[in-house]
Amino acid sequence: MAITTAQSPFRIDPLTGMRIDLKAQALVKINAVLAVVFLLVGGAAGLLVALTRWPAVHLLPADLFYMALTAHGVVALMVWIIFFEMAVIYFCASTVLSCRLATPGWAWVQVVLMTVGAAITAVAILQGNSSVMMTSYVPMDAAPHFYLGLILFAVGALIGCFVFLGTLVIAKEEQTYKGSLPLTVYGCLIAVIIAIFTIASGAIILIPTFLWSLGLIESIDPMMYRVIWWAFGHSSQQINVTAHITIWYTVASLAFGAKPMSEKVSRTAFLLYILFLQLGSVHHLLSDPGMSSAYKIFNTSYMMYMAVLASMIHGLTVPGAIEVAQRRNGYNNGLFEWLRKCPWGNPVFACTILSIIIFGFIGGITGVTMSVEQVNMIIHNTIYVPGHFHGTVAGGTTLAFMGLTYYLIPVLFQRELILPWLAKIQPWLFGIGIAVFGVALMGAGTLGVPRRHHDMTFAGQALSFEWPGMAYMMMAVGEIGGVVSVVGGAAFCVIVVGSILVGKKVPADAKCIVAPHADRNADKHIGMGGFEAPGTFVLALTLFVCLVLYYFINFKYLATVWTLA
Amino acid sequence: MSEMKANETKKPLTVLQRILDDQNFMLMLGLVMPTVFYTLWGVMEVATIPIAP
Amino acid sequence: MATAYTPPEEGWATEPIERTEIIWIVLALSWCLFMFGWMIAWHWIGNQNMNNEAYRTTPEAYAKKVEDFTAKYTVRQDASDPSLPVVAPPPGSDVYLAASRWQWRPVLEFQKGKSYRVHISSLDWQHGFALLPENINFQAYPGYEQVITMTPNKTGTFGIACNEFCGIGHHIMLGRIYVKE
Ligand code: HEM
Ligand SMILES: [Cu+2]
Ligand SMILES: [Cu+2]
């Protein structure tokens, strides 16, 4: 192959055999490092928030609590995740396609804009007059530079999206791959498409809001704001879902040599995402005045739940592909031998499987249920909501990103992980902590405990309200789970930063770590009863039964409250 | 584009694959669908709320 | 052999789909269609629905309505907070509840099993109507009033918390509804 043109030197990675563009490598590294640094900041804010919402501790006074919560939402949800996504899309477009990155100069502009933007917003929050939560619903106002920072950050991310698309064009022209895009890159493409809609929506709403905060625009309609803001706020969660599902597929291949069960099915599921996933933004508006039921039902169901169908497909095909690979590799006995023989102590695998389970069972089941037009009335804005989305965005996305990071450290940073014993338990600390946190908060939310709330005792209020003891207990259990997950998150940051700084260098003649192709049993018949992945099917049925039961339990509860018409 | 031509000499691609592989078409779908069904319809919903009597 | 990170083998779009996936897709699709139908059906078979009645208004106009409504039906001052009037509207009538930083006004008194057309709106920022311990939640906007017909099915003292962040006093915002036999 004619490589190494003068401007874009490549190296061949000894561990994976991948051909890596050094300019892309530097950009993936800087984005990933910034992401992890911000995760640390966001996690610290999360700890303060959790320690305040734990009734027995009640750490911060109200003003600092709302400041910390604003910081936590902005930094954890937007900054950590989007920086990491930049690393992912650069890695996929260039390294996975063995292609040089398009316009590395612009990619550096992305890094600078996003860093400066995040810093400006962070300063605005810390100055104390921008404790408006990440949603900054008008007419509540933040300092102008709160919005300005977010706008710069978003522009940076948009540039990153175009660098990705440009790289795909180059890869096609220079024919660095043949035929269709690999699924890994395809998933990133879907995420980037969603991101473009997301960022455009963000611009449409944040730029006028910025001008309004400067006094250049007189007012902004609060309902219009919320409609457009959620086209941004929720679609960005759909980027995360698409990105972490893509990582699931990728890790299944990296760790097991797994082949997607059916490219056709997985890609069609991604098409369903493109068509319908972003309609779901409306589930933030279900309790709002004056939205017709036709609008709400059509959109909150992603047009007849077609995007839910797609997620259920991904949820089956990723573990299914692992099962098939394991069975072909010789673990073909019974329903679950393949699962028992998975590398549970390997943090890359552990993060990924926990991400799949938590996203499916906690984030997925509750998400489908709470976005029903009517069920939303008994859930909207309670602490149930943070319970749910920590299942998706912390348990699902963040864990998946952690898993990929463990993989990238030896490959891109060429360092071995320090503290391997800690890396072994870290996914479990973070995952189990978040799972407990999520489930307990949902319990408290079912009792009505509000979200974003400094003091559930309403101390000092003449009109008192008595919660059942269970509500306090759920909050305490949940926040203890939260503290455990912060320990897990901190361990992650220590391992990553430590490995990069002082980890042992991976020798140039290191053995290739790519999983053996799954072919020990290639010719033998695998699976049971005509199913290639019977174990996965049983697990999927378990999820299905839980979903159906949970769905009806919520309607049963809904049927007991005041009549509403 | 030139890729497409090269492929035509082999087996014809299915419609599904043509759609899935067409990055620009996917981008278009991904922008138009939510803009029409979520954003524009939503803005209309808000705009048509009647004035209080 | 192909993996997720290598291009798929040619002809991937015509490969047959394995049984595990087919059955799962059929099952999942059926459930999806059921849920869609159920959400629509609940508008007829369920007793908890939003009728989506809403109006555009202004904080001033709405405050006036609340004032008139309060003046008309006040029965006493609240025992826990004498600064708050308790208003007992006749069943079937329009009830005006206002959110502002940081209170819900006025205190309401309903009769069990009777219906009330409850209007909810805000006089300043966004707030959230959260009826406790029933756990019924609606968004309250300035400039828009939403009307929900509520029929209490139990007696007791109910709280109204605020569940949309509305500034530094968000967590002390608490209103009340009494429901009598
Ligand atoms: C490290 C462990 C974490 C802990 C202990 C934690 C804890 C919390 C707590 C207690 C709340 C406040 C709930 C409320 O009162 O409304 C919260 C809100 C939130 N968290 Fe986390 N969290 C963690 C990780 C994450 C991660 C990784 C993300 C995103 C990737 C995230 C995103 C959010 C968001 C978006 C909110 C909502 C903020 C808002 O209401 O504006 N959290 N978190
Ligand atoms: Cu309020
Ligand atoms: Cu509030």
Write down the domain tally of chain C. Answer: 1
Q: Please work out how many helical segments of chain A DSSP would assign.
A: 15
The largest beta-sheet of chain A arranges its strands as 1-2
Task: Give the names of the bound compounds.
Answer: protoporphyrin IX containing FE, copper (II) ion
Class by alpha and beta content of chain A: mainly alpha
Task: Give a written overview of the molecule.
The complex is a heterotrimer of chains A (565), B (53) and C (181). Chain A has a two-stranded antiparallel sheet. In chain A, a hairpin with a 6-residue loop joins strand 1 and strand 2. The longest helix of chain A has 35 residues, at 62-96. Chain A has helices at 22-53, 62-96, 104-127, 144-173, 183-213, 222-256, 263-276, 293-300, 302-328, 337-340, 347-370, 384-413, 420-446, 469-502, 534-558; strands at 10-12, 19-21, 563-564. Chain A is globular and about 70 Å long. Among the domains of chain A are: 31-37 and 66-252, no CATH class; 257-342 and 533-560. By secondary structure, chain A is mainly α. With 53 residues, chain B is mostly helical. Chain B has a domain at 17-42. Chain C has one domain (53-180): Cupredoxins -  blue copper proteins (Immunoglobulin-like, Sandwich). Chain C has helices at residues 19-45, 59-73, and strands spanning 53-56, 74-77, 85-87, 94-100, 103-105, 107-111, 116-122, 127-132, 136-140, 144-151, 156-162, 174-180. Chain C has 181 residues and is an alpha+beta fold. A 7-stranded mixed sheet of chain C has the order 2-3-6-12-11-8-9. Chain C has a 5-stranded mixed sheet with strand order 1-10-7-4-5, covered by helices on one side. Chains in contact: A-B, A-C, B-C. At the A-C interface, helix 2, helix 5, helix 6, helix 7 and helix 9 of A face helix 1, strand 1, strand 8, strand 9 and strand 10 of C. The structure holds protoporphyrin IX containing FE (HEM) and copper (II) ion (CU) (2 copies). Residues 127, 162, 164-166, 170, 173 of chain C line the site of one copper (II) ion.
